[in-house]
Design goal:
387 residues; 63% helix; 11 helices; 5-stranded mixed sheet; Heat Shock Protein 90
Length: 387
Protein backbone atom coordinates (compact mmCIF):
# COMPACT_ATOMS: atom_id res chain seq x y z
CA UNK A 1 0.00 0.00 0.00
CA UNK A 2 1.43 3.37 -0.98
CA UNK A 3 1.06 6.52 1.07
CA UNK A 4 1.24 10.11 -0.13
CA UNK A 5 4.42 12.05 0.59
CA UNK A 6 4.58 13.92 3.87
CA UNK A 7 2.72 17.19 3.78
CA UNK A 8 0.53 16.29 0.79
CA UNK A 9 -3.17 15.68 0.82
CA UNK A 10 -4.54 12.31 -0.34
CA UNK A 11 -6.61 12.09 -3.45
CA UNK A 12 -10.16 13.21 -2.84
CA UNK A 13 -9.27 15.25 0.21
CA UNK A 14 -11.85 17.89 0.93
CA UNK A 15 -10.61 21.20 2.32
CA UNK A 16 -11.94 22.15 5.71
CA UNK A 17 -13.68 25.13 4.19
CA UNK A 18 -16.29 22.86 2.60
CA UNK A 19 -19.63 23.13 4.43
CA UNK A 20 -20.13 20.49 7.08
CA UNK A 21 -23.34 19.19 5.57
CA UNK A 22 -21.46 17.88 2.54
CA UNK A 23 -20.01 15.00 4.60
CA UNK A 24 -22.94 14.63 6.99
CA UNK A 25 -24.73 11.30 6.54
CA UNK A 26 -28.27 11.75 5.30
CA UNK A 27 -31.12 9.43 6.19
CA UNK A 28 -31.95 6.87 3.53
CA UNK A 29 -35.51 6.80 2.20
CA UNK A 30 -35.92 3.06 2.80
CA UNK A 31 -33.69 2.60 5.84
CA UNK A 32 -36.69 1.36 7.85
CA UNK A 33 -36.96 -1.76 5.65
CA UNK A 34 -33.80 -3.26 7.19
CA UNK A 35 -35.46 -3.10 10.61
CA UNK A 36 -38.96 -4.12 9.57
CA UNK A 37 -37.82 -7.53 8.28
CA UNK A 38 -37.24 -8.65 11.90
CA UNK A 39 -40.83 -8.02 12.93
CA UNK A 40 -41.85 -11.58 12.07
CA UNK A 41 -41.22 -12.47 15.74
CA UNK A 42 -44.38 -10.48 16.56
CA UNK A 43 -46.67 -12.70 14.47
CA UNK A 44 -47.30 -15.26 17.28
CA UNK A 45 -48.44 -12.65 19.84
CA UNK A 46 -50.57 -10.89 17.19
CA UNK A 47 -52.22 -14.18 16.27
CA UNK A 48 -52.74 -15.01 19.94
CA UNK A 49 -54.37 -11.61 20.56
CA UNK A 50 -56.59 -12.05 17.48
CA UNK A 51 -57.78 -15.49 18.60
CA UNK A 52 -58.00 -14.62 22.29
CA UNK A 53 -61.06 -15.56 24.35
CA UNK A 54 -60.91 -12.20 26.12
CA UNK A 55 -63.45 -9.52 25.39
CA UNK A 56 -63.36 -7.42 22.24
CA UNK A 57 -61.95 -4.42 24.10
CA UNK A 58 -58.93 -6.35 25.38
CA UNK A 59 -58.35 -7.86 21.94
CA UNK A 60 -58.37 -4.41 20.34
CA UNK A 61 -56.05 -3.06 23.03
CA UNK A 62 -53.68 -6.01 22.61
CA UNK A 63 -53.50 -5.79 18.83
CA UNK A 64 -53.13 -1.98 18.89
CA UNK A 65 -50.39 -2.19 21.52
CA UNK A 66 -48.41 -4.72 19.47
CA UNK A 67 -48.77 -2.64 16.29
CA UNK A 68 -47.60 0.53 18.09
CA UNK A 69 -44.74 -1.49 19.59
CA UNK A 70 -43.69 -2.67 16.10
CA UNK A 71 -43.90 0.84 14.65
CA UNK A 72 -41.89 2.25 17.55
CA UNK A 73 -39.22 -0.41 17.11
CA UNK A 74 -38.85 0.40 13.41
CA UNK A 75 -38.73 4.16 14.06
CA UNK A 76 -36.22 3.86 16.89
CA UNK A 77 -33.77 1.65 15.04
CA UNK A 78 -34.02 3.63 11.83
CA UNK A 79 -33.12 6.68 13.89
CA UNK A 80 -30.28 4.86 15.68
CA UNK A 81 -28.89 3.69 12.34
CA UNK A 82 -28.93 7.28 11.07
CA UNK A 83 -27.27 8.61 14.25
CA UNK A 84 -24.45 6.08 14.28
CA UNK A 85 -22.01 8.60 12.85
CA UNK A 86 -22.75 10.94 15.76
CA UNK A 87 -22.43 8.45 18.63
CA UNK A 88 -24.99 6.72 20.85
CA UNK A 89 -28.41 8.30 21.39
CA UNK A 90 -28.94 9.97 24.79
CA UNK A 91 -29.39 7.45 27.59
CA UNK A 92 -32.54 9.22 28.81
CA UNK A 93 -34.15 8.71 25.41
CA UNK A 94 -33.14 5.04 25.35
CA UNK A 95 -34.58 4.34 28.81
CA UNK A 96 -37.81 6.11 27.86
CA UNK A 97 -38.12 3.94 24.74
CA UNK A 98 -37.39 0.74 26.68
CA UNK A 99 -39.95 1.65 29.36
CA UNK A 100 -42.57 2.48 26.74
CA UNK A 101 -41.93 -0.82 24.98
CA UNK A 102 -42.37 -2.81 28.19
CA UNK A 103 -45.56 -0.89 28.92
CA UNK A 104 -47.01 -1.73 25.49
CA UNK A 105 -46.17 -5.40 25.95
CA UNK A 106 -47.88 -5.33 29.34
CA UNK A 107 -51.03 -3.89 27.71
CA UNK A 108 -50.97 -6.68 25.13
CA UNK A 109 -50.53 -9.42 27.76
CA UNK A 110 -54.25 -9.90 28.72
CA UNK A 111 -55.12 -10.74 25.11
CA UNK A 112 -51.87 -12.35 23.87
CA UNK A 113 -50.99 -14.17 27.09
CA UNK A 114 -47.47 -15.51 27.43
CA UNK A 115 -46.91 -15.00 23.69
CA UNK A 116 -46.53 -11.26 24.43
CA UNK A 117 -43.23 -12.14 26.10
CA UNK A 118 -41.84 -12.67 22.59
CA UNK A 119 -41.59 -8.91 22.30
CA UNK A 120 -38.91 -8.92 25.01
CA UNK A 121 -36.35 -9.89 22.40
CA UNK A 122 -36.85 -6.48 20.77
CA UNK A 123 -36.38 -4.74 24.09
CA UNK A 124 -33.16 -6.68 24.69
CA UNK A 125 -31.79 -5.94 21.24
CA UNK A 126 -32.62 -2.24 21.61
CA UNK A 127 -30.82 -2.13 24.97
CA UNK A 128 -27.72 -3.93 23.72
CA UNK A 129 -27.35 -1.74 20.62
CA UNK A 130 -27.86 1.61 22.33
CA UNK A 131 -26.74 1.34 25.96
CA UNK A 132 -23.24 0.84 27.29
CA UNK A 133 -22.22 -2.69 28.19
CA UNK A 134 -22.94 -2.66 31.97
CA UNK A 135 -26.40 -1.14 31.57
CA UNK A 136 -27.22 -3.41 28.62
CA UNK A 137 -26.14 -6.49 30.58
CA UNK A 138 -28.40 -5.44 33.46
CA UNK A 139 -31.36 -5.05 31.10
CA UNK A 140 -30.77 -8.47 29.53
CA UNK A 141 -30.47 -10.07 32.98
CA UNK A 142 -33.77 -8.48 33.99
CA UNK A 143 -35.46 -9.79 30.85
CA UNK A 144 -34.15 -13.28 31.55
CA UNK A 145 -35.64 -13.10 35.04
CA UNK A 146 -39.01 -12.04 33.58
CA UNK A 147 -38.99 -14.92 31.08
CA UNK A 148 -38.19 -17.46 33.81
CA UNK A 149 -40.31 -16.13 36.68
CA UNK A 150 -43.52 -14.73 35.12
CA UNK A 151 -44.80 -18.07 33.69
CA UNK A 152 -44.56 -19.55 37.20
CA UNK A 153 -46.49 -16.68 38.76
CA UNK A 154 -49.31 -16.10 36.24
CA UNK A 155 -51.96 -18.83 36.27
CA UNK A 156 -52.45 -20.59 32.94
CA UNK A 157 -49.12 -19.56 31.44
CA UNK A 158 -46.84 -22.22 30.02
CA UNK A 159 -43.05 -22.15 30.66
CA UNK A 160 -41.02 -20.26 28.04
CA UNK A 161 -37.82 -22.25 28.34
CA UNK A 162 -37.50 -22.68 24.57
CA UNK A 163 -37.71 -18.87 24.12
CA UNK A 164 -34.84 -18.15 26.50
CA UNK A 165 -32.06 -19.28 24.06
CA UNK A 166 -33.59 -17.15 21.32
CA UNK A 167 -33.55 -14.12 23.60
CA UNK A 168 -29.91 -14.63 24.59
CA UNK A 169 -28.75 -15.39 21.04
CA UNK A 170 -30.59 -12.35 19.68
CA UNK A 171 -28.98 -10.07 22.27
CA UNK A 172 -25.55 -11.59 21.66
CA UNK A 173 -25.89 -11.11 17.89
CA UNK A 174 -27.05 -7.52 18.42
CA UNK A 175 -23.99 -6.88 20.58
CA UNK A 176 -21.70 -8.12 17.80
CA UNK A 177 -23.45 -5.98 15.21
CA UNK A 178 -23.26 -2.91 17.44
CA UNK A 179 -19.52 -3.40 17.88
CA UNK A 180 -19.01 -3.63 14.12
CA UNK A 181 -21.09 -0.48 13.54
CA UNK A 182 -19.23 1.38 16.28
CA UNK A 183 -15.83 0.41 14.85
CA UNK A 184 -16.92 1.51 11.38
CA UNK A 185 -18.05 4.87 12.80
CA UNK A 186 -14.70 5.29 14.55
CA UNK A 187 -12.85 4.45 11.33
CA UNK A 188 -14.93 7.01 9.44
CA UNK A 189 -14.13 9.68 12.04
CA UNK A 190 -10.44 8.77 11.93
CA UNK A 191 -10.46 9.05 8.14
CA UNK A 192 -12.04 12.53 8.35
CA UNK A 193 -9.41 13.59 10.86
CA UNK A 194 -6.61 12.28 8.63
CA UNK A 195 -8.02 14.19 5.66
CA UNK A 196 -8.23 17.37 7.72
CA UNK A 197 -4.68 16.90 8.99
CA UNK A 198 -3.39 16.24 5.48
CA UNK A 199 -5.03 19.41 4.16
CA UNK A 200 -3.59 21.41 7.07
CA UNK A 201 -0.11 20.03 6.39
CA UNK A 202 -0.42 20.85 2.71
CA UNK A 203 -1.41 24.43 3.51
CA UNK A 204 1.54 24.80 5.86
CA UNK A 205 3.92 23.37 3.26
CA UNK A 206 2.64 25.79 0.62
CA UNK A 207 2.99 28.64 3.09
CA UNK A 208 6.59 27.72 3.82
CA UNK A 209 7.41 27.41 0.12
CA UNK A 210 5.81 30.74 -0.75
CA UNK A 211 7.58 32.46 2.12
CA UNK A 212 10.99 30.89 1.39
CA UNK A 213 10.96 31.33 -2.39
CA UNK A 214 8.83 34.36 -3.23
CA UNK A 215 9.54 36.15 0.04
CA UNK A 216 13.29 35.83 -0.51
CA UNK A 217 13.05 37.10 -4.08
CA UNK A 218 10.93 40.09 -3.07
CA UNK A 219 13.36 40.92 -0.27
CA UNK A 220 16.26 40.94 -2.74
CA UNK A 221 14.27 43.12 -5.16
CA UNK A 222 13.48 45.57 -2.36
CA UNK A 223 17.14 45.82 -1.30
CA UNK A 224 18.38 46.27 -4.85
CA UNK A 225 15.82 48.96 -5.70
CA UNK A 226 16.74 50.77 -2.50
CA UNK A 227 20.39 50.63 -3.53
CA UNK A 228 19.54 51.82 -7.03
CA UNK A 229 17.63 54.74 -5.51
CA UNK A 230 20.69 55.75 -3.49
CA UNK A 231 22.89 55.56 -6.59
CA UNK A 232 20.44 57.76 -8.53
CA UNK A 233 20.74 60.39 -5.80
CA UNK A 234 24.36 60.93 -6.89
CA UNK A 235 23.38 61.88 -10.44
CA UNK A 236 23.07 65.55 -11.35
CA UNK A 237 19.46 66.83 -11.30
CA UNK A 238 17.51 66.69 -14.51
CA UNK A 239 14.22 65.46 -15.97
CA UNK A 240 15.62 62.02 -16.83
CA UNK A 241 17.21 61.53 -13.41
CA UNK A 242 14.07 62.70 -11.60
CA UNK A 243 11.95 60.32 -13.68
CA UNK A 244 14.30 57.42 -12.96
CA UNK A 245 14.29 58.15 -9.21
CA UNK A 246 10.48 58.27 -9.24
CA UNK A 247 10.19 54.95 -11.08
CA UNK A 248 12.70 53.23 -8.79
CA UNK A 249 10.84 54.55 -5.73
CA UNK A 250 7.60 53.09 -7.13
CA UNK A 251 9.29 49.72 -7.72
CA UNK A 252 10.61 49.72 -4.15
CA UNK A 253 7.17 50.57 -2.76
CA UNK A 254 5.48 47.83 -4.81
CA UNK A 255 8.08 45.28 -3.73
CA UNK A 256 7.57 46.11 -0.07
CA UNK A 257 3.77 45.88 -0.42
CA UNK A 258 4.06 42.55 -2.23
CA UNK A 259 6.35 41.23 0.52
CA UNK A 260 3.84 42.33 3.17
CA UNK A 261 1.04 40.60 1.23
CA UNK A 262 3.06 37.38 1.02
CA UNK A 263 3.68 37.39 4.76
CA UNK A 264 0.01 38.07 5.48
CA UNK A 265 -1.03 35.22 3.16
CA UNK A 266 1.42 32.81 4.78
CA UNK A 267 0.14 33.77 8.23
CA UNK A 268 -3.41 33.05 7.07
CA UNK A 269 -2.48 29.54 5.93
CA UNK A 270 -0.96 28.75 9.32
CA UNK A 271 -4.14 28.99 11.35
CA UNK A 272 -4.52 26.22 13.91
CA UNK A 273 -6.95 23.37 13.32
CA UNK A 274 -9.09 21.90 16.11
CA UNK A 275 -8.78 18.43 14.60
CA UNK A 276 -5.01 18.83 14.33
CA UNK A 277 -4.71 20.09 17.91
CA UNK A 278 -6.82 17.16 19.13
CA UNK A 279 -4.46 14.71 17.42
CA UNK A 280 -1.42 16.62 18.73
CA UNK A 281 -2.87 16.57 22.25
CA UNK A 282 -3.37 12.82 22.10
CA UNK A 283 0.26 12.31 21.01
CA UNK A 284 1.67 14.77 23.57
CA UNK A 285 -0.24 13.24 26.49
CA UNK A 286 0.73 9.72 25.44
CA UNK A 287 4.39 10.73 25.20
CA UNK A 288 4.21 12.25 28.69
CA UNK A 289 2.62 9.10 30.13
CA UNK A 290 -0.62 10.91 30.98
CA UNK A 291 -3.87 8.99 30.57
CA UNK A 292 -6.10 10.94 28.19
CA UNK A 293 -9.89 11.16 27.95
CA UNK A 294 -10.41 12.98 24.65
CA UNK A 295 -13.44 13.40 22.36
CA UNK A 296 -13.44 11.27 19.22
CA UNK A 297 -14.41 14.12 16.89
CA UNK A 298 -15.11 17.84 16.62
CA UNK A 299 -18.44 17.73 14.75
CA UNK A 300 -20.28 19.21 17.72
CA UNK A 301 -18.28 22.47 17.53
CA UNK A 302 -19.50 25.10 15.02
CA UNK A 303 -16.93 26.23 12.47
CA UNK A 304 -16.86 29.78 13.87
CA UNK A 305 -15.56 28.54 17.25
CA UNK A 306 -13.06 25.92 16.12
CA UNK A 307 -9.99 28.17 15.79
CA UNK A 308 -10.45 29.69 19.27
CA UNK A 309 -11.10 26.26 20.78
CA UNK A 310 -7.98 24.93 19.05
CA UNK A 311 -5.85 27.62 20.72
CA UNK A 312 -7.47 26.82 24.07
CA UNK A 313 -6.83 23.10 23.61
CA UNK A 314 -3.19 23.74 22.70
CA UNK A 315 -2.59 25.99 25.72
CA UNK A 316 -4.45 23.72 28.14
CA UNK A 317 -2.68 20.52 27.10
CA UNK A 318 0.70 22.29 27.05
CA UNK A 319 0.18 23.37 30.67
CA UNK A 320 -0.85 19.86 31.65
CA UNK A 321 2.24 18.30 30.08
CA UNK A 322 4.73 20.88 31.38
CA UNK A 323 3.51 21.96 34.79
CA UNK A 324 0.71 19.84 36.24
CA UNK A 325 2.40 16.60 37.30
CA UNK A 326 -0.91 14.93 36.43
CA UNK A 327 -1.62 11.30 35.61
CA UNK A 328 -4.94 12.02 33.85
CA UNK A 329 -6.21 14.72 31.52
CA UNK A 330 -9.74 15.14 30.18
CA UNK A 331 -11.05 17.31 27.36
CA UNK A 332 -14.71 18.09 26.76
CA UNK A 333 -16.12 19.81 23.67
CA UNK A 334 -19.58 21.26 23.19
CA UNK A 335 -21.16 23.70 20.80
CA UNK A 336 -20.09 26.71 22.87
CA UNK A 337 -17.46 25.48 25.33
CA UNK A 338 -14.10 23.69 25.50
CA UNK A 339 -12.78 22.43 28.81
CA UNK A 340 -9.36 20.98 29.70
CA UNK A 341 -8.80 19.62 33.20
CA UNK A 342 -6.39 17.29 35.01
CA UNK A 343 -5.78 15.64 38.37
CA UNK A 344 -2.40 17.25 39.05
CA UNK A 345 -1.24 19.92 41.47
CA UNK A 346 -3.79 22.50 40.37
CA UNK A 347 -3.44 26.27 40.04
CA UNK A 348 -1.54 28.10 42.76
CA UNK A 349 -3.34 31.31 41.83
CA UNK A 350 -6.43 30.91 39.67
CA UNK A 351 -6.24 34.55 38.63
CA UNK A 352 -2.64 34.44 37.50
CA UNK A 353 -1.09 32.96 34.42
CA UNK A 354 1.84 33.05 32.05
CA UNK A 355 2.23 34.53 28.62
CA UNK A 356 0.32 31.65 27.05
CA UNK A 357 -2.75 32.22 29.19
CA UNK A 358 -2.50 35.97 28.65
CA UNK A 359 -2.45 35.43 24.89
CA UNK A 360 -5.41 33.05 25.13
CA UNK A 361 -7.28 35.62 27.22
CA UNK A 362 -6.70 38.20 24.49
CA UNK A 363 -7.90 35.82 21.77
CA UNK A 364 -11.01 34.98 23.81
CA UNK A 365 -11.78 38.66 24.37
CA UNK A 366 -11.40 39.35 20.64
CA UNK A 367 -13.94 36.59 19.90
CA UNK A 368 -16.38 37.78 22.61
CA UNK A 369 -15.64 34.63 24.60
CA UNK A 370 -14.82 34.09 28.27
CA UNK A 371 -11.73 32.38 29.71
CA UNK A 372 -12.22 30.64 33.07
CA UNK A 373 -9.43 29.20 35.20
CA UNK A 374 -10.17 27.31 38.41
CA UNK A 375 -9.48 24.15 40.33
CA UNK A 376 -10.84 21.00 38.67
CA UNK A 377 -13.15 18.56 40.51
CA UNK A 378 -10.28 16.05 40.31
CA UNK A 379 -8.08 18.49 42.25
CA UNK A 380 -5.99 19.70 39.33
CA UNK A 381 -6.12 22.60 36.88
CA UNK A 382 -9.24 23.47 34.88
CA UNK A 383 -9.17 25.72 31.83
CA UNK A 384 -12.46 26.57 30.18
CA UNK A 385 -13.30 28.82 27.25
CA UNK A 386 -16.99 29.68 26.82
CA UNK A 387 -18.02 31.24 23.50
Amino acid sequence: MTTPPEGTAPAGAVPSGVPADVSTPRPGRFRWVFTAVWLYFLFPPLEAAWRSDEGLAWRVVGIASLLVFAAGFVWFFARVRYRRGFGRPPAVQVWAVLGTGLGLLALATPAAGEQAMTGLIYVGVAAVMTLRAPAAAAVVAGLVVLVVVLPTLVPGWEPLGDFLPSLLLGCFAAFGISQVIERNAQLAQAREQLVDLAVTQERERMGRDVHDILGHSLTVITVKTELAGRMLETLPPGPAADRARSEVADVERLAREALADVRATVSGTRQVSLTGELAAARAALAAAGIRADLPSGVDVVPARHRELFAWALREGVTNVVRHSGASWCGVQLSADCVEVRDDGRGPVDCQGGGNGLAGLQARAATSNARLEIERAPEGGFLLRVVA
